[in-house]
Amino acid sequence: MRECGTKKTLLLVKLASFLHHVRLQEFRFHNMKQTHSHPSRARVVRWCAPAAGFLKINVDGSFNHITRKGGLGFVVRNELGHMLAGGACPLSGLISPEHAEILACKRAVEFAADHALIPAVLETDASEVKRQLTQHISSNTSVLGRIYDDVGNFLETLMGISVSYVGRKGNLVAHTLAAHACTLRQDSFYFSTPAFLQSAIAAEFCNV
């Protein structure tokens, strides 16, 4: 009985340690994203069209820390700022905001490959996600390491897709799609601009 109790105690300690690690990562990720979302007054953050011949894929993730649910959104636009495609997918079983962000990258890259939407720039407002993907060298040992490895390996195999960072104010359309995804029961994909996205597209269109 004593040995059984000891094993149970060890399991509880390990679980508590894991949850603490996840919450710490979540706190750091959230603060890092918040820091980059408030640039200096001298610099205006905005969406910029890709170079001629390239597409830009903006991605974003949404996370509810109480329900552990959320959504991901991505939008594909050309050098004229025209929306070619996009997606909004509900998520569950999330462990952090970063989890939603890297899943958004994964789904967007898979979609781009399936529909030959390359060459392209994959743009995120999560600086840590951008750092991890651009510095992908060997196996990632973080909690989300397996997903990072999958996306990194896919990008290396696919080629034609680079990764960049933009502040939150330059990622309005993807953010709107991610928020919309939280209201959905199944994945939705678009090949023209849906009504709920028109104002966000128009707001960023002036920056082309």
Describe how the helices and strands are arranged.
Layout lengths: L1 H35 L18 E10 L4 E9 L5 E9 L5 H18 L5 E5 L2 H8 L10 H14 L2 E5 L6 H10 L6 E3 L7 H8 L3
Parallel strand pairs: 1-4, 4-5
Antiparallel strand pairs: 1-2, 2-3, 3-6
Helix pairs in contact: 2-4, 3-4
Describe the fold and architecture.
The protein is of the alpha/beta class and 208 residues long. It has a single domain (55-205), classed as Nucleotidyltransferase, domain 5. Helices cover 45% and strands 20% of the residues. It contains 6 helices and 6 strands. It has helices at residues 2-36, 97-114, 127-134, 145-158, 172-181, 198-205; strands spanning 55-64, 69-77, 83-91, 120-124, 161-165, 188-190. It has a 6-stranded mixed sheet with strand order 5-4-1-2-3-6. A hairpin with a 5-residue loop joins strand 2 (69-77) and strand 3 (83-91). Helix 2 (97-114) runs parallel beside helix 4 (145-158). It starts with a helix and ends with a helix. Mean pLDDT is 85; it is low at 18-22 and 34-40.
